[in-house]
Amino acid sequence: QVHLVESGGGLVQAGGSLRLSCAGSGSIFRINAMGWYRQAPGKERELVASITSTGGTNYADSVKGRFTISRDNAKNMAYLQMNGLKAEDTAVYYCNIRLQGRSWSPSQDYWGQGTQVTVSS
What we know:
By secondary structure, this protein is mostly beta strands. Helices cover about 0% and strands about 60% of the residues. The protein is built from no helices and 11 strands. The chain is elongated.
């Protein structure tokens, strides 16, 4: 079993910052990609940022220059530093980790429970 626990969401004023954390635990052999997604009310879930096992990153155009994704492989952690927050960043943010539970098992996606980020204008 694999569990992902997110933390760091909350209420912040426009222009402020938040740092989201995602901790993976359980049967983990190798973590491949890690990512953050978000879903606003009435909208589909969208990719915010992702990072590969070698550190390559990808960002949604709407957050480029404001958000930074990072990972700590030794701790099975992913982070999302969010600066210059805007009202349109308000959403539930989900951590996603693609990993192998065993050396012989295929990669699978796991999701956190989500953490609410609310930006007041």
